[in-house]
Amino acid sequence: MGRRGGAEVSAAEAPRTLALEVAGVSHAYGPRKALEDVSLTVAPGQFVMLLGLNGAGKSTLFSLITRLFSARRGHISIFGRDIAVEPGEALRRIGVVFQARTLDLDLTIMQNLIYHASLHGIGPGDARARGGAALAKVGLAERMDDKARVLSGGQMRRVEIARALIHAPRLLLLDEPTVGLDVAARSEILAQVRRLVADEGIGVLWTTHLMDEVLPDDSVVVLHKGRVLVSGPAREVLASVGASDMARAFSTLIQTRLTGDAA
Predict the structure, then answer these.
(1) Which residues pair with 73 in a beta bridge?
(2) 3-state secondary structure 48-64
(3) List of E strands, 111-180
(4) CA neighbours within 13 Å on the CB side: how many for 103?
(5) Torsion angles phi and psi, residue 200, rounded to 5
C-alpha cells in the first residue's frame, strides 16, 4: 500500500475503481420526498455536472455524500468504501466546497488553510508547504498573508478550493461554487477546476443550476424534483432532445417529464 498526499492509496483504488458511486438513493424530510432512486457515478479524472433548479435535491444529495445526513435507502461509496460502513476511510478521500462561505474572515488565508489541515492531522510545517502549493494551483500564492475579509467573492471561492485540496483528496465535491459571482470569476474558477481534473486526475462532482457552465465534453446528470431525468455526455444529451444548448435541453426534458406525469 502506498501513500499519495494525505490519503493512502491501495490496489482497490486503481483507476478502474469509481471515485464516487451513488446507487438507488432516496431521502425524505418527513412526508416530503427530496430524492427518489437517484444513481450516478464519477470516475477518477472525470468532471461531472449535476444540473438542477433550486429545490431539485442537489444539496440534499451533497449532504448525503458528505454524511451530514444518512441515506434512508440505497448506498454511497467513495473509491469502493461504503460511507455507511467505513465513513472515516471514505470521507478522508474527498475534498468539499460547500455552497455557503466558510472561511474565517479574521484569519489570514494561510491561517485558514493551516487550521483546516490540522483537522486532517497535518502539522503546521507540512500544512504551510501544502497550503502554498494549493494556493499556487488557484493563483493566489502571493496573497497567503492577507486577511480573508479583503478578498473578493471569487477569490474566497478559490481559497476554499485550495483548502479542500490540502489533504490531497482524489475526489472533489463543489456545491454551487459559482453562485453569486460575476461571469469572469465563474469562468476562472471553472477553468481552474477543469485543469485539476486534466492535470491531476481528480474526480469532480460540480452541482449547479447555471446551464451555461456545461461544455459539450462534460458528463451531466440532470436532476429535477428529486429524480434523475437523464445522465451521460452533454453532447449526447443535447442530441437526444435535438437542442443546441443545455438550457434548451433542460427545458425540453422537464416538459417531457411533466407531460409523462400528467399522462
Answers:
(1) 26
(2) EEEECCCCCCHHHHHHH
(3) 171-175
(4) 28
(5) -120, -5
Distance between CA 240 and CA 244 in Å, rounded? 11
Residue 165, CA distances (Å) to 9, 34, 117, 260 in order: 16, 30, 10, 43
> Which positions of the chain have pLDDT values less than 70?
1-16, 258-263
The H-or-E segment that residue 88 falls in is helix 87-91
pLDDT for the residue numbered 10: 46
CB 62 within 8 A of CB 100: no
Q: Which of 77, 90, 84 is nearest to 7 (CA)?
A: 90
pLDDT number for residue 42: 97
Eight-class DSSP state of 108:
B
Task: Name the amino acid, one letter, at 72.
Answer: R
Spatial distance between the Cα atoms of 5 and 10, rounded to a whole number of angstroms: 13
Among 202, 223, 256, 169, which residue's Cα sits nearest to residue 49? Answer: 223
pLDDT tens readout for residues 56-115: 999 999 999 999 888 889 999 999 999 999 999 999 999 999 988 889 999 999 999 999
263/250 Cα distance (integer angstroms)? 20
Quick check: helix, strand or coil at residue 3? Answer: strand
